[in-house]
Design a protein that fits this description.
One of its GO terms (biological process) is regulation of DNA-templated transcription. The chain is 52% helix and 13% strand. By secondary structure, the chain is of the alpha/beta class.
């Protein structure tokens, strides 16, 4: 039996994933958490867990932050990232941070069952799209795009601003102060050589970080 914990700040999303996984006789959801604090509490009481199904965009500590913490702790629990973001935005970052797989929430729900089983067996799960990206990253010259040099939180701030969110909204969503978000924004503008949010949005669209 593959024992699973779900960590997503949206209760409806967790319920949908739980319902999908409950149809699999070899998978058991043993707990749910809405943020990093709840996850830590749950991990202390849940006993042995095989797979953590983790959202990447959560308030406070993001999924990428959580991945780094778990990796540093040397946990034996394997992490499957399930995100609303397309693969080309966060998949490789998540895998580098220690994730065993990455699934888009907008995809076929059945893929989550397959991914949990694959990760639960200790194998990596990647979609054909991610596999292609990994091959290209190995075979093309190392001309890294400017946004690849951003930190995980800076990239998250870039995507959210380019999606039309105000700094105050981003601060609320990430449980950060508006001043801290402003610092991230300033770093993004400096690293990308841009002057304002309009240029930032154009950059994000041209590089496929957000839809037009």
């Amino acid at each position: 039996m593959i024992k699973v914990i779900l960590c997503d700040d949206h209760a409806l999303i967790r319920r949908g994933i739980r319902d999908t996984l409950s149809d699999a006789p070899d998978i058991q959801v043993v707990g749910e958490a809405g943020d990093y604090g709840e996850l830590r509490t749950l991990l202390r009481t849940a006993g042995e867990v095989d797979v953590l199904v983790l959202d990447i965009n959560m308030p406070g500590r993001s999924g990428l932050d959580v991945l780094h913490v778990l990796k540093d702790e040397g946990t034996t629990m394997r992490v499957l990232v399930v995100s609303m973001y397309p693969e080309d935005q966060y998949a490789i970052r998540a895998l580098r941070a220690g994730a065993y797989g990455y699934v888009n929430k907008g995809g076929d729900p059945g893929l989550i069952v397959t991914a949990v089983r694959t990760v639960g067996q200790g194998r990596k799960y990647v979609t054909p799209e991610i596999a292609q990206m990994l091959v290209e990253s190995l075979t093309t010259p190392t001309s890294e795009a400017a946004h690849e040099k951003l930190s995980d939180r800076e990239l998250q701030t870039l995507v959210m601003i380019a999606s039309g969110k105000r700094l105050s909204d981003i601060a609320d969503e990430l449980t950060l102060s508006p001043k801290t978000v402003s610092v991230y924004r300033a770093r993004v503008l400096e690293k990308l050589g841009l002057s304002n949010n309009s240029e930032l949005t154009v950059y994000a669209i041209r590089n496929g970080l957000v839809g037009e």
